[in-house]
Amino acid sequence: MPENTTYRRLDQPLLGRARFEVDPEWFARFSERIARFLGTGRFLAIQTVIVIVWIALNLTAWFGSWDPYPFILLNLAFSTQAAYAAPLILLAQNRQDDRDRVSLEEDRARAERTKADTEYLARELAALRIAVGEVATRDYLRGELDKLCERLGAEPDPATERARARLSRRGDG
Fold first, then answer.
1. According to the model, what pLDDT value does residue 104 have?
2. Chain segment 84-117, per-residue pLDDT in tens
3. Any transmembrane segments, and where (predicted)?
4. pLDDT tier at 41 (50, 70, 90 boundaries)?
């Protein structure tokens, strides 16, 4: 057996050689376009015109009618069309199901993220409410200072009294 003297790797394709590449989705996209066309009024109108012309030509031709009255050839054409249309429509439906499945998964993931974000914000809001509940307000501090002043026997600060009067007029006091 002769020895391989080219020393090329057999697990890698040759470079520079023209390869025939086919887009695997090409036929699926093409069948989807056909299925969309088969479901239109335009297709039904064209098909109706073709059938009427077919029948009229075969009924009025005195000689040379290629498909006499039972219209077997027309029936064969319809059968062939149905044989190809059904799988194309099913292929288009399968592609639509795949798109719907992907969309549903994305919606589900988005809903889970939204739920997690909402739960996080609810926890943060609860923590803020608890923290605000523990914060000393101005009124609390003023009251405590007034109590302390009374205990010490000192008079309250006039600036504090003016601020309290101003707040009570505004309705904040």
1. 96
2. 999 988 988 999 999 999 999 999 999 999 999 9
3. 43-63, 69-91
4. very high
Burial bucket for residue 92 (CB in 10 Å: 0-12, 13-18, 19+): buried
- The answer for residues whose C-beta is within 8 angstroms of residue 92's C-beta and 6 or more apart is 31, 32, 35, 36
pLDDT digits (tens, 9 = 90+) for 52-73: 998 988 888 877 778 888 899 9
| Sequential DSSP letters for 98-163 | HHHHHHHHHHHHHHHHHHHHHHHHHHHHHHHHHHHHHSPPHHHHHHHHHHHHHHHTPPPPHHHHHH
- The residue type of 152 is L
